[in-house]
Write a structure and sequence with these properties.
Largest sheet: none
Number of domains: 1
Helix content: 55-70%
Structural class: mainly alpha
Strand content: under 5%
Order of helices and strands: HHHHH
Length: about 130
């Protein structure tokens, strides 16, 4: 029986470790991962600039610092480039629309299936 907080058994961490990444799949994964990270970091830069331009008092400065700290923690937790974690990472990035399935073209069906499953899992965790 699958726990409600975990994705289907077919995508357990034991099975994820069994996914074998070919050289071409590794290249696709690296390019996709780096592009998503760069896009998210650019979004953080833009928001930080916007916030910085509106600083009027010391508390505004600490709001900016808090925003940057929280975003860094979130990004550090999200972007894990270990092959045993990439299906989960890409599932989340797909759900959050930092990547789309076209970015993943060339990955094996086993990986695409796992990524789609994680995207659905994360969709179920989104607040309604």
């Amino acid at each position: 029986m699958t726990s409600p907080s975990r994705p289907p058994v077919q995508n357990s961490s034991a099975n994820r470790r069994d996914l074998m990444w070919s050289k071409s799949e590794k290249a696709i994964a690296r390019k996709t991962f780096d592009a998503a990270l760069e896009g998210e970091l650019q979004e953080v830069i833009q928001e930080a600039k916007r916030m910085a331009s509106q600083i009027k008092q010391p508390s505004d400065l600490w709001d900016l610092e808090h925003y940057l700290t929280e975003r860094r923690r979130e990004i550090d937790r999200k972007y894990d480039y270990r092959y045993s974690q990439l299906d989960l990472v890409f599932g989340r990035l797909l759900r959050e629309r930092w990547i789309d399935e076209e970015d993943l073209r060339g990955l094996g069906e086993d990986k695409l299936e796992a990524i789609r499953s994680y995207a659905q899992f994360f969709a179920g965790k989104d607040p309604a």
